[in-house]
Amino acid sequence: MEIRFLQPGDLGDVLAVLESWDSESPKLFSWNSQSLTEEFYASIALGGSLGLWMNGELAAFILFRDLPGACEIQFLATSKVNCGKGVMKNLLRELQKRCEKQQLSIWLEVHAKNYSACGLYRSMGFVQTGLRRGYYSDGGDAFLMELSPRVIRS
Ligand SMILES: CC(C)(COP(=O)(O)OP(=O)(O)OC[C@H]1O[C@@H](n2cnc3c(N)ncnc32)[C@H](O)[C@@H]1OP(=O)(O)O)[C@@H](O)C(=O)NCCC(=O)NCCS
Questions:
Q1: Mutate to test the pocket of ligand 1, among 81, 120, 124 (most ligand atoms within 8 A of CB)
Q2: Are the beta carbons of 3 and 52 closer than 8 angstroms?
Q3: How is domain 2-104 classified at the architecture level of CATH?
Q4: pTM above threshold 0.85
Q5: Is 130 in the pocket of ligand 1 (CB under 6 A)?
Q6: CA of 25 to the centre of ligand 1 (A)
């Protein structure tokens, strides 16, 4: 297993992770190849990307932005074949470690019916801080969630 920042040449692998999901799933995360490509370049230009490779294949990635006092996740995904193996939890822990060093919270929004993503975030200690009703194009609500940094004692 290898975790590193994404590079421009990784775009094809990132899009392949998105494409591993069937056509119904994007309603739950509202990303398509065009919006993902735009966010990919924006995130890597700002240093806000992490990928996890297994046996030389991109298994999961996170695109995020650093804001004052917080890191905001734009999108994350695990390839369908690698789901349920703890891959994303591993990658999020890496981001969490990085954020804790800088005492940054992690923010994100998630479709209220994206049960696997909600389960993942809750299992990591994210708490719901807000609700945007009808935020998604299918009329679904968005939960705003936050993971606060643990206090680091010297
Ligand atoms: C959400 C997603 C990233 C989870 O990735 P994953 O690699 O399968 O997650 P993990 O195996 O690391 O799961 C970790 C935790 O998530 C939770 N989880 C995972 N799948 C779940 C499911 N179907 N239902 C409920 N909880 C689930 C569990 O709590 C699990 O922890 P545990 O195994 O210790 O109980 C993956 O399903 C995905 O890529 N979905 C499509 C893209 C997407 O929806 N992105 C989120 C946009 S906000």
A1: 120
A2: yes
A3: 3-Layer(aba) Sandwich (3.40)
A4: yes
A5: no
A6: 13
For 123-147, write each residue's pLDDT tens digit.
999 999 999 999 998 899 999 999 9
What are the structure tokens assigned to 127, written together?
Answer: 């708490």
Name the residue ranges covered by the structural domains of the chain: 2-104
Please give the mean pLDDT across all residues of the chain.
93
Q: Cα dihedral angle (84, 105, 93, 115), rounded to 10 degrees?
A: -10
CB neighbours (10 Å) of residue 41? Answer: 13
Ligand 1: nearest atom to the Cα of 84: 11
Which atom in ligand 1 lies closest to the alpha carbon of residue 17? 39
Q: How far is the C-alpha of 30 from the C-alpha of 46, rounded, in Å? A: 22
Rounded to 5 degrees, what angle do the CA atoms 40, 43, 48 make? Answer: 130
Strand partners, 132: 142
